[in-house]
Specification:
This protein is an all-alpha fold. The protein has helices spanning 7-31, 54-76, 84-100.
């Protein structure tokens, strides 16, 4: 997405891509799948439509960050005590990024099923 835009949108999207790439590498190494055929980062996916439009691109990023917050929150309960802090930090970070990209802040970030709104 960063390559399709310019200025602030390009910088912000590029910064998030670097963060997500680094985090994915850390998780893949911790899981022992980095560089193997089991590495889930190698999966092909289809990009959503509307990424060429700044509003559509921002909505897509907001949705991605919101989804990541929910996934990280779901992992907290099953993580060992020493591994929870990084996941809680990831929930907070991805929730803040989602809001910065235009998502509404839910009552319980990372737990959309608990949101009464």
């Amino acid at each position: 997405m960063a390559a399709q835009h310019r200025d602030d949108l390009r910088r912000r999207a590029g910064d998030r891509a670097v963060t997500h790439r680094s985090r994915a590498e850390s998780w893949a190494r911790a899981a022992g799948v980095a560089g193997t055929g089991l590495d889930p980062r190698r999966v092909a996916y289809t990009l959503p439509s509307g990424l060429g439009d700044p509003a559509g691109a921002a909505a897509a990023v907001a949705g991605l960050e919101t989804s990541l917050a929910a996934h990280y929150a779901g992992l907290v309960a099953s993580a060992p005590a020493g591994g929870r802090a990084a996941l809680v930090d990831a929930v907070a970070e991805t929730t803040a990024e989602a809001v910065a990209w235009g998502a509404a802040l839910p009552a319980l970030p990372g737990m959309p099923e608990q949101d009464a709104g």
